[in-house]
Amino acid sequence: PDILFIDGNASPSYDAKMKCIVKGDDNVVSIAAASIIAKVYRDYVMIEYSKQFPEYGFEKHKGYGTPEHMKNIIRYGLTPWHRKSFRDLFSLEYNLFS
Fold first, then answer.
1. Model confidence over 3-20: pLDDT tens digits?
2. Are 82 and 64 in contact (CB under 8 A)?
3. Among residues 26, 38, 37, 30, which one has the least CA distance to residue 18?
4. Is the CB of residue 62 less than 8 Å from the CB of residue 46?
5. Long-range pairs for 27-30 at CB < 8 Å and ≥24 separation?
6. Using an 8 Å Cβ cutoff, are 89 and 78 in contact?
7. How far apart are CA 57 and CA 49, in angstroms?
8. Distance between CA 63 and CA 33 in Å, rounded?
9. Which positions ≥6 away from 47 have C-beta within 8 Å?
């Protein structure tokens, strides 16, 4: 590509010309389209994960840090699909073990 449009204010470490655009999904059609595609795909993936791990309710909350999701992490632990870098997991661990 000639240029990458990044939604936000922090560019990833990648060797290409890029432009960061705060609220890019509100202002750039290609970013908005990519955002929709990413969310639809994420929802599909979460439904598939719910077949592997039905006790987590992924098909309902789609992986967002809802109270139900956090209770299920406490009850069942993390799956291989949970992002260990997610801020809410750090705060959950801190609250559980401090």
1. 999 999 988 888 899 999
2. no
3. 30
4. yes
5. 30/5
6. yes
7. 9
8. 21
9. 58, 59
Give the span between the Cα atoms of 34 and 37, in whole angstroms.
Answer: 5
3-class SS letters over 37-94 = HHHHHHHHHHHHHHHHCHHHCHHHHCCCCCHHHHHHHHHHCCCCCCCCCCHHHHHHHH
Helix (H, G, I), strand (E, B) or coil at 13: coil
**Structure pTM?**
0.70
Give kind and range of the element (H or E) at residue 95.
Answer: helix 87-97
Nearest residue to 4 (alpha-carbon basis) of 26, 40, 39, 28 = 28
| Predicted confidence (pLDDT) per residue in 41-52, tens digit | 999 999 999 999
